[in-house]
Every structure is written in C-alpha cells, then in structure tokens.
## 1
Amino acid sequence: MHYRSTRGKASGYTFEEAVMTGLASDGGLFIPNEIPKLPSDFLTKWKDYSFAQLSLEILSLFIDETEIPRADLKKIIDASYSTFTNKDIVPSVQIDKESDLWILELFHGPTFAFKDVALQFLGNLFEFFLKRRNSQRKAESDPVHRLTIVGATSGDTGGAAIYGLKGKENVSVFILHPNNRVSPIQKAQMTTVLDDNIHNVAVEGTFDNCQDIVKALFGREDFRIKHSLGAINSINWARILAQIVYYFHCYFTIVRAGRVDPKIVFFTPTGNFGDILAGHYAVKLGLPVSKLVVSTNSNNIVDRFFKTGKYEKGVEGVLETPSPAMDILISSNFERFCWYIAYECEATGPTEEDRISQAGQIISKWMDDLKSTGKFEVSEASLIKARKEFSSGTTSDDQTIKTINKYYKIKDSDSKKNYLLDPHTAVGVNLANTMRDEISNELGYSDYISVCLSTAHPSKFVEAVEKSLSSDFPEFDINPLLPQQFVGILQKEQRCEYLPNDTDAIAKFVESKAQY
Ligand SMILES: *Cc1c(COP(=O)(O)O)cnc(C)c1O
C-alpha cells in the first residue's frame, strides 16, 4: 500500500514515509492509494476478536508485510494497548435500554483521553522505525537517525503524546501549550513527566499562537531537516488508522450482546475531524453503519458544512465552551474527507488517473480559497452524497451542562444506568436524544442503536462537571471518582519552560535541548 497527498502533487510514499513526515511536501495530507478489501467473511470471522486482534487485521491491510512484518506489527500493537486499564481496551456499555443508547468508552488509556488509542501506537511505531533505521547504519560515524517532535496542544493531545513518547530512544519531544489556558490537571499531566526526552513549553499566548509557532518551525526548511521534525497532531495518518479499529470493535461488541445485524448510528464528538474520519474509513472498508453523526459544540464549522455545503470560518473566532478539546476554527482532517468528495463527485475525467489528478487540483483550489476568502463550497451532488453517510448537529453550552446532569441524576433501574458523562461526550449524547426524529426520517426506520463515542474521562474536566451538578447535588465530590493517577498530581514535581510568543525563542530552546 502506498500513500498520496490530498493536494495531488506528491505520491508514491510508503507507510513509513507517511508516518515519519506527517505532512506531504505539497502541504497536503496523506491518504492511502486505495481502500483495501476486507475478507468476505469478516462479519463472522472477526466477531470474537479482541481489540488487539482486530487492530492487527485492520492495520495490516494498510501496512505492507514488507514494511512491517506481521509479527513485528503484532508486537507494536500488543505493547501499545498493554498500557490500557480496561481488559476490553475500548468497552461499549449500554446506558439506556429504552432509547438503546450505548457509550463507546475510549478513555481507558494512560491519560484518560481517546487520543491515547492512537498516540500509544504512534509512539511505538516511531520507536520501531528509528531502531530499524539505526540498525542499518554501516559505520559508527554514520549519523544516528532521530526524531524531534514539536507539537502544540490545547490540553489533551500534549498529555497523550507525552505518554506515548516518554523514554523513547532517539526521540525528543517539545510540546507547546498556552500558558494559563489549559486546566491544572491537564498541565500537571504533561509537566510531571520528568523523562529527559520530554520538554514542556508554556507559551505566553493562545493555542493559535502555539500552533502558528509549530507551523513556522516546520516551514523553516533547514531547521526541519537538521532536527528531523516529526508531527504528532491528528494529521498524522497513523492516528486515523489506529482509530478505525474501535468502530469495528464496538459493532462486534453489540453483536456479541445478542443483536443480530445491528443498525448503528455513531455520534462522534468532533473537533479536528480525526475521530469521525476514522469512522468514515470504517464505512469505506465495509463496516455496516447506518449513520455517522458529526457532533460539534458551538464551534460548528463542520455541522454548518453538512447543512449547507459551505465550509466557512465563523466570524467570531474560536468560542470558549465547556468542551475545550473541540474548540477549533477549522478542522484539519476535513481535507481528507473532502478529497473523497472531490474524487467521487466533482472530478469528471474519463479515467481513474484523470479523476485522481483532478481531485488533487480541486482540493488545492478549495484550500487556497479557504485561506484567501475564509470559505469554499461543494456542489449539490457532493452534498447529497455526503449526507447519505453523515448527519450533523450542534450542542449548546447549556445543553452540554444539562445533559451531564440528566444522566447523573438517573436512578439505576433495569433499563437505565446512572452515568457521569464528560462534557465532550455530553455533546454527542445530547444529539442522540434531540436528533431522534430527524435521523429516523432520514433512515426510514427508528429501531436503530445510538452509540456515542466517549472521548474523555469526566474527571479531566472537573469544572464543567461541577457546574452541571453543584446545584442539584451540593455534596457532589469528584475525588472518589478520580483515577489513581490523578490523586495528588497537582502537588507533584513539575518541569516546564516559560517562553514568549516568539518563534525564534522556541527554536533556540529546541536547539539547546534536542538530543544529538
Ligand atoms: C481531541 C478531542 C476531541 C476531538 O477529536 P477530533 O479527532 O479532533 O475530532 C473530542 N474530545 C476530546 C476529549 C478530545 O481530546
């Protein structure tokens, strides 16, 4: 399997190149050259597979045996998920029988965010590739292969990346976060990791400033090459790939619960469009899914797209919501989805090759338009096709807070379970309730199963949870619910560098700390 860029000017990349470089040289994102075929009997054959077994089957469809031998891939996968605390890795639980609502819990990894699923895997992949490259060095004097990860975080990505990469040989990690704008728990999760290869930088500025600095550093060709800069944000193809698996795992969990040919609607809390894009690939591979529902907070550029066909930046800038990991202006992974729209609906060339080349041109144009005018628009035909697979909705701050309260208040019964939702998950759960009629109409049936992906453990977002519960449950105390790793974390030793919003200052810091 080879990979090409969404912008069409770069192709023929191996999986290793796609993962190690992150972004294609023409500025596009890597996508696989084709969608592989599943075994025709996968629905029966894979039914009882564990998460790790499913990962091996699905990932090996996208990674040639000649690139990573199956036995090595298995080791990488097993190591990646050995750090999860739930035996099912990503369990699915039914919390309301009446409305047939399930939660796909993705927060049992080391930092209690769904990003662990992909970043544990990515860290082990980096390690595997570097080790292999270094074992092929001919002489002691040959340069050692290294990777310098520079990434920006608004909170969750940084912690998950640090836990995926701490202690990895020949990898240096620099994570920029906006000073005083991540939660104290999130900050402590990052800065209490004291491994030599981990460097936290609190930037005097906003998350956007951090991201701009990272982009500027990648744009400095000499710097990028000298330090072998690598990316861990969700544009990295390996992250999408690893996430495809849990859509399958959830489907089979529901089948094992006795449901024959289940009709499933997935509600995916969406920011950068990585999590739900993995669902799109699951559908492309052939997983039976009734709908994918893009679930956004008021930063709803993607919801607006699925309603109007226009992808348009909001005028107000990023809004602050109770679900901060989804507070984005534009969704970087949306470009991958757009490529498929362009290829399937907008390109008109007679041959496959023509259409692929046209799709790249169309994406380049759309991305140029987005940059220069703040928007682009797709054809009516594209929108109709997109809406067959996707629905979308927006949850307000108020609805988010009320939804947490509603599910916490439930008295356990045979049909309903009391459940503490995190604010991101609540965005999806609210839509599972409010969009019932709309989705039933679109599908032509109402006996579907709603699954909301739960992207974080509620104790990571104490503020929103307390806001939701404090008036009805004055004695509510998050402490007994805190995962062991969070107990006392705020008092632990922290290491962090405080730097101005200045690319040169950050570059200097990276120079001084990167391993040579
Ligand atoms: C990153 C994140 C999201 C958004 O996921 P995308 O892949 O960016 O759409 C949602 N919830 C939480 C808790 C996250 O950390």
## 2
Amino acid sequence: MKLQNSLNFSGGPGALPESVLLLAQQAMLEVPELGLSVLGISHRSDWFASVITETENNIRALLGLPRDYHVLLLQGGATQQFSMVPMLLMRAQAQAAQYLHTGYWSGKALPEARLQGPIDVVWSGASRDFKSLPTSADLNFAADAPYLHYVSNETVEGLQFHRVLGRDDVPRVCDMSSDFLSRPCEAERFSLIYAHAQKNLGPAGVTVVLLRDALLQDAPSNLPCFLDYRQQAQAHSNLNTPPVFSIYVTLLVTRWLLHEIGGLAKMAHINQAKADLLYQAIDSSAGFYQGRAAAQDRSLMNVVFNLATPELERAFLRQSLAAGFSGLAGHRAIGGIRASIYNALTLPAAQALAEFMDDFQRQNPA
Ligand SMILES: *Cc1c(COP(=O)(O)O)cnc(C)c1O
C-alpha cells in the first residue's frame, strides 16, 4: 500500500509542508550556507546561534509578541510543561491554582500539578463525556489563584476554545500544543504559552514556550537547571545540547508561515476553509457521520466523528487507506475517526477527504 504525504491526517506527529521537507532533506546532506550536514553541526556554533535567534524572531513576528516575553525552545514535550509550570508558579503558594478539565490532555496535566501543590478544578466536562466546552456562565475564576491553566485545543476530542478565558489579573497559562500558530492568539494576554512542535510546527523533540519576564522574578532558586525557565532563558535555549535538527526544521516552518503563507491571519483563513469543508460533509450527511463536538466548540484542527457502528468505522478506515489517506483513526482513548487538519494539510487535501466521505456514504447507504 502506498500512502501520500499530501493526504496525511495524522494527529501527531503531524504532516509538514512539502517545501519544508525538501529543504530538510537538502540540509540532511548539507546546509546550503554552511556546507555541513545539519546532523553534524555543533550546537555552540555561530550558525546554530543564528538558527535559534531567527526562529525566536520569526515567532515574535508572527504573533506580534511584546519584548518582555522570552521565547524558549525546550525539550520534554508538553508533558514536561505539565510539571515545569507548577514548579515555577505554585511553590510556596497557599492558594490553589485553577485548572480546567476539558478533555484528555487537560486531564493529563492535573496529576502532575497536584504533585507540586493544591489545585482547584474550576470545571470538568467528564460528566458530558467531553463533548462540549464550558460557556462563560459556567466558569468562576478566583482573583487570588496563582494562575489559571487550560488547553486551547483538545486534540483528542476535537474541541477548541474560540475565546480567551480567565481574568486579566491572574496569570493565564495555556497549552496550545495542537493549535499554536494556526491562528492569531492574542499572545500578550497570556503569561505563559507552551506548544510542542510535533502537531503544527515541526518534528518531535522541541517545545516552544513563551513567557512573560515578570514571571521569573520570584522563580524558586532550588529547581534542577533543566526544569528552571530562568536558567533556560539565561542560556538562550542552549543550556545543554538542544535538538538541533528539530529546531532547524521548526525554523523552516516559521519561514514558510511568514513568507509562503503570509502570516497567521492568512493561515487562519485557510484553516477555517479546510474545517468548513469537513464539517459541511458531516452536517450534510443526514446523520451518517456524527460529529463528536458540540457545534459551537468544534476544533478547526481536529475534526472528530463517528459512524453508526464500529464495523462501518473499520470499513471507512480500510477504504480510506486504500485511497491513499492516512492517520484517520481516532485517538486510542476514544476510537472513531479523527481528521487532523494542521497547518501543513492543504485545502485540496481537505477537499479530497470531503469527497471521499460523500462517496463512502453513497456506497454504504444506511
Ligand atoms: C499531544 C498533546 C500533548 C502531549 O504532548 P507530548 O509532547 O507528547 O508530551 C499535550 N497537550 C496537548 C494539547 C496535546 O495535543
């Protein structure tokens, strides 16, 4: 069976733009301006320092990020951030940090935070099987919490917040791992944003953290260096050997966003068009496809749906693979179908999947 990168709907690591893959391939042999393979260059070289600086500057430019934010390129994935955030912000705090439990990934952050101190789960979608997000009326944010933590896009369930949550006087912390740089995000309203690269902006191995400098003023001084944002910032993301290749490819993706796509407003426009095609296919199927997320909370990145029976879902996955599509199986936690339409997945690819869905329905009348 031959699969196609252009039809890769993987939930993560996700597809990357073809132009980026070609440049990465070339850099594997030799980086054009250097003549060396990207896999054999010192992380202490001037060249790599310029890679870090340009990646950081590109992210700043894409988001219009104020100067008082650090842009860090760390390891350990989003999972390490589940611990680093409370290690920085919760120590010696009597008040509980506030957390939203809106799905699989926000749930994974809870036990890690509890290891560091008290947390208050402001709202949980568990009783409604994580099929919708809270409205503003459902939420009561405390003025004295050390911070609020939430996930902007629940990758597994296909739920996405289309507004910023919380209070302006309490630090907002957001896991944007699956929708970072997919749309403008009002970064200046958050104290800390983190996103690993492998869903929307590069290969696995690097995690982008944006954090406001003021957060570091009271940072504890007894943290292991690797888990200490202050030391990571002082070392300019080069505290120990960083994942050079992953960071280089992330740089290529930020260049692609800036120069080929033309910025985040344009990216958001394309992403909306892709999502519209697939939700339209679901909504016009007379119930043959059942969207999982409540309509107002639908994700523009992960389109999650079911068919009437597990057998029909298996047939859908089998036939879609035969047609060259891949990555459409739902997350192992909930099954069903999930089409992840991250930045690199093109509009024609979303169109092809919508057409496949129509064809499949015609061939399998209820
Ligand atoms: C995939 C995902 C994670 C897990 O990230 P790792 O890098 O594997 O630790 C965390 N949060 C969200 C929102 C995700 O989509």
## 3
Amino acid sequence: MSDLVASIRERYLMTLAAIASAAKKAGREPESVKLVVVTKSQPVEIVRAAIEAGAKILGENYAEEGVMKLQSLREFSAVEWHMIGHVQSRKAQLVAANFNLMHSLDSLKLAKRLDRFSGEAGRQLPVLLEFNVGGEESKGGWPAWDEAHWGGLLGDVAEMLALPHLTVRGLMTMPPLGSTADFSRPFFQRLRRLQEFLSRQFPQADFSELSMGTSSDFEAAVEEGATFVRVGTAIVGARNYQ
Ligand SMILES: *Cc1c(COP(=O)(O)O)cnc(C)c1O
C-alpha cells in the first residue's frame, strides 16, 4: 500500500468509526449511514487512492470533471459515482448518462431535462431533492427555511414524482457554513421535519434518504437522521484549486 493510500485509509476508517458511534448514540444502525467521499477538485490519482483505501461511493460537483474521472477509473466497476453539485441545464445529459445518484436536484426545469435524457439513455436516474433550509441566497435548492410555506413546494414535488425516468429517493441539503456542528443541527432537524411533511403528503412516494453533513458536522447529521454524509477534506485532504 502506498503512503498516500495508507493515510487516506486511516482517515476513511476514522470517519466510519465516528459515523458508527454517532449512529449508536442516536439508537441507529451504523449500516443505515452511507459515506460519500467527496473528491471534487482532486486529481484522478487521489480519487484512485481513495478507492484503493476503501471508498465505495465518490461524490463529484462538476459534471465534466466527474465524467472524466469515472471514465478513467472504469476498472473499479463496483464504485458508485454521485453528483452532489449544482448542475446546469446543458450538463443534464452528461449527468443522466453517467451518475448513479443525483443528490442536488434543485429545479423542476432540470428535473424535466434529466428525465428526458435518462429516458433516451435507457436509464432510470435516482435523485434526491435539494432544499435550502437556511435561507442563504447563495445556496441552491427549493426555498424551505420557512416552514409555514412548505405547502408551496408540493406542486413541484408532485410533478417530479410523476416523471417516468427519475426515481425520487429522498432529500438533500447544504446548510449555511458554520464553525460548529451545533450550528448546523437545527438545519438538519428542519430537513428531517420536511421529510416527514412530504411523506405525509405523498404517502406512496419514497423520501427515505437524507443527504446531509460534511467534514465539519457529519456526526450531528447522523444523530439527526442522515442516511448519506458527504465528507471530503476530512478524508482526502484540502482541495487544490488552480
Ligand atoms: C464540497 C462539498 C462537500 C464536502 O465538504 P468537506 O468540507 O470537504 O467535507 C459536501 N457536500 C457538498 C455539496 C460539497 O460541495
């Protein structure tokens, strides 16, 4: 094992252990939480090392960068590739044809395009709906910080549930950046309440997945019900932006 793989493996296993203890603390099964290793802006060699270190799910934010990486790492056929970043309409085809799960579906327009391209590719694309539970202008997702207005989300959600080539699996959020996990906790709780609200409104639909929590706050997210956590820097180190 190279030094790079060994050091990523150590941090990967530490993260898994922290997830397991947060799950136990909340009375949950550790296996109910899946770890997405976020490799955006990391070179292919780091992604390869992450896979060799044990990563089963990789999270990418940019369609072209993600597709380039998954094509160069085709030999690892068991690995899943998840899109976690905002996708522009003109990149919908790349995402529909290549990714295993889209966490960051944030508009009805994009949903319709992904549905069309998934159909053309002969695929069914699993998606999570992204909600903005913090109220920051810069964050993506349907506005959901004001619980009194959740009824206004139902029309779009109903339309997405009816798209034949998308399968809605749950909800995702990226809360405002805070310095502590306890800052993020109320946002995670709000996403969980929204999950309960949508499940009551659409009892036949599946909203069971909750994608929330990053390096700085994934343990709080697990305590609040996350089924996917998206962890980058804590496992693969800082990103080198060119
Ligand atoms: C970058 C990113 C992450 C990972 O953040 P880290 O702080 O590196 O763990 C998780 N989710 C989304 C949507 C991201 O863009």
## 4
Amino acid sequence: MGTVRFVFVLLAFLCCSSSRFAGAYDPLDPNGDITINWDFQSLDVKDANPYTVMVSIHNNQLYRHIERPGWRLSWNWAGKEVIWGTWGAEATEQGDCSRFGGGNRPHCCQKRPVMVDLPPGTPYNQQVDNCCRGGVLSSLTQSNRTSVAAFQMTVGEYAAAKDGGGKEPEMPWGFDVGVPGYSCSNATKVPPTRSKVDKNRHVQVLLTWQVTCSYSQYRESGAQSCCVSLSTFYNSDIVSCPRCSCGCQGTPTSPRCVAGGEPGTLALPAGGGDDDEPAAPLVRCSEHMCPIRVHWHVKVNYRKYWRVKMTVSNYNLVRNYSDWNLVLQHPNLRSLTQLFSFNYKPLVEYGTFNDTGMFWGIRFYNEMLLQDGNVQTEMILEKNEGEFTFSGGWAFPRRVYFDGHECVMPPADQYPALPNGASAARRRSLLAGPSLLLLSFLALLV
Ligand SMILES: *[C@@H]1O[C@H](CO)[C@@H](O)[C@H](O)[C@H]1NC(C)=O
Ligand SMILES: *[C@@H]1O[C@H](CO)[C@@H](O)[C@H](O)[C@H]1NC(C)=O
Ligand SMILES: *[C@@H]1O[C@H](CO)[C@@H](O)[C@H](O)[C@H]1NC(C)=O
Ligand SMILES: *[C@@H]1O[C@H](CO)[C@@H](O)[C@H](O)[C@H]1NC(C)=O
C-alpha cells in the first residue's frame, strides 16, 4: 500500500512538477490572484433607477504584474442592461443603442461590454481614484498602491434577480480580464466592503459582488521568453543559454531578428511608443533567440562569503520592460548579506522553504529595462555552514523567472566545472542533488 502510494506520488511529481506549474496553484505565491469587486454605491431596484457601481481590480499576486496593453475587463449582462456613463474607464464599443432613439444615448449597449482603462493624463472630471494607468497593474510586492485599478459606471435597464427577493439586480457572468493565462470565476455575493472617501471617513457600500481570476502558465500558450547563462571565476568557459531556447532563428515560431551592429546603432522601425498594442518582438539575433537573458556569474570567493554578479539583458529591440522583476530560487538566498542596485524581498517563507526571492529595479534608477539594454546587480552571500560548495553546480540558481515567466536553464551536465579534476565527484553530486531534492519533496508530501 505504502509502495503504491509512493509510486503514485512519484509519478505525479514527475509528470506535473517539471517546470511549469500544475493548474492554477503556484507554490511561490499560494494566495496570488486577481480579485474584482463590484461595489454598489446606489441601488434602487424597486423603481429600476439606474444604479452606480464602483468596479475595482486588485492584483494580489506577489510577483506577477499586468503590463501593457493592460487589462480589458468583459462580462455578459444577465438581461438588457446598458451602461449610461463611466468614469475612469470606457467601453471599447458603443454597440447598437438604436432603441434609445436620438437625444440621450447610453455609453454602451453591448450584451458583452469590454471595458478598458483610460490613459494617464485623462482629464480630472473623467477620473476616479486608482484609474487611468493604461491598464497596467503592479505586483503587490513592487507597489501595493498601483496594484489596484478602478472605474465607476451607471447602469440602467436592468432586471431584479429572482432569487435575490427582487432587492438586487441580476448578476452578470462570463467575466474575463483579457490578459493571457487568466481565467475568472462567476461573481458571488460577499459582505459589503467599506471604502475610504477621505483621510478619516469610510463609507459602507450597499452590496458587493466579487469575482476571482487566477493565472495558469498552462493556459498561457506561447513560446519561452527568457533563458539563463552561467559563468564563474574558476573556469573560463561561459555556458550560454541553450540553443533555440525561445525558438530557432528563421523558424515561424521564433521572433524576427536583426543581426550585428553595436547596441544603439541599429535602424529600428518607428512605432512602439504610446500605441496600445506592444510591437511584435524584434530581437537581436542570437543562438537562443530569447528577448531576455539572465546571466549569473560567480565572481569572487571570500573566506566566509561569496559574490555573484547578475545581469539581465534585454535583446528585444522594440520593447522597454517597465517594473520588471526577477524571481530566483537558490538555497543560499536566505543568507543574502548585501545587494547592490536592486530591491529584494524573500518570497516564500514557510517551513523549510526559504530559498526563493524576488528582485526588482530601484525607482527612477533601473526600474525600466530598456530596449537593447541591461540591468545589473552584485550580491554577497554568506556561505551556509555545511551546505556551501562550488562543486556540483550548487552555486547556480535552481530556477529563474523573469516577469513571471520561467527561464530556460542550461542542462546541469554543462555547468562550469571546478578546475582540479574533481569531475567524478562532481558528476556524482550532480546526480545526487536532484534525487535528494526529490526525496525531501516526497517526504513532505507523504
Ligand atoms: C503598502 O506598502 C507600504 C510600504 O511598502 C506599507 O507601509 C503598507 O502597509 C502597505 N499597505 C497595505 C495595505 O498592505
Ligand atoms: C456562470 O454563470 C453562468 C450563468 O449563470 C452559467 O451558465 C455558468 O455555468 C457559470 N459558470 C460556472 C463556472 O459556474
Ligand atoms: C524606451 O525608452 C526609451 C527611453 O526612455 C525611449 O527612447 C524609447 O522610445 C522607448 N521604447 C519604446 C518601445 O517604448
Ligand atoms: C528566511 O530568510 C530570512 C533572511 O533572508 C530570515 O530573516 C528569515 O528568518 C528566514 N525564515 C525562515 C523560516 O527560516
């Protein structure tokens, strides 16, 4: 019985844990989701007066953020609802409002409206708090202030819910945040939220509906976008990103690329800028063809400490990554002693897992990873007693994620070796490493 269970767990582990997260559960961010609240500020169902609702979108994810072109929230109305007016966002289409004749027409009569955030700089009288950032949502770790978006709308022509005793409108359904990889639940009624109207006062809304959207890498199709290369002070070999990590040059799935030239000297197609859609990737040609490369260099060995230099290079020639972040797994991160030029926060701190952390740029300094540019850090780690070693690839990161996407690592048997013929021992520990990890993982599961 025990053996059967063991084998089953082993199979489950092998099939599902390889590199992508199974389902929507992310062990690095177990509570990460996007929550959408509909807070009713006025509601007079009896006389079917238009109601006013504040819709807010909260990114509760520690390291995933929503980048341009931003969220596009859509849903299906339960009945014949129309949106009379909006603040802080707008519907992409007005739809067929002909039944309202001339004069005063609604903002949107579509059965399935698509709402988008307004751009920064929107006139003040069209704004609400937390609006108008072009659909961008920060990760919770990077800024809990800009991880929320909101808009307000006035809705008319609605019907009362049959099971709500006629006191509430019928709930819309089929929610979608319009960002690849996310899927949303139906709305549920939750205890009404309080909202802050000024520094000292909170008001209670009349009714709150809540929708939860979760991310899964399985749902987000598409090629890899990032790879890792390695080097050390003790070996002159540089282990590059695996060939074709993000596609092979010239194949239909790989991004277009530009060869040669010094950085900054290439003639680039005009565009990008303030357009809604980001330009299709155009990368500097390379063996790996990834828009992002993370280079980990083991730089110095001190008696009690060691030093790593990490460089994140943007090979994409038409894209700046604003508010980029990097999630890294390495057993020595818990003894990170000093870090230059980046922000850092440990990410997972439960039980024995304390080996994952998040790095991101410093505001007004390197929070933006420029097209064809790079950002760098050096860090000093205290050697963990009885654990630290330069052999067996221990000094290299186990996993790396850029902007929430897992990066392709070189195969372990290509890691830079120690010079003094320690290769047999090295090979043994390379094999022992993962299986020990597997065993300790199983011990936790069973
Ligand atoms: C938001 O972050 C700031 C500083 O990073 C912190 O002081 C504050 O408590 C946070 N607010 C919430 C609601 O988590
Ligand atoms: C959501 O609600 C719609 C309409 O009430 C229903 O058809 C659908 O099955 C529901 N979906 C889920 C996942 O419950
Ligand atoms: C990236 O930022 C630089 C400097 O701010 C700017 O010149 C360039 O146009 C930006 N590129 C895109 C694609 O937005
Ligand atoms: C994890 O590491 C941090 C230092 O990076 C330390 O402050 C914290 O106490 C550690 N947590 C556990 C559970 O070991």
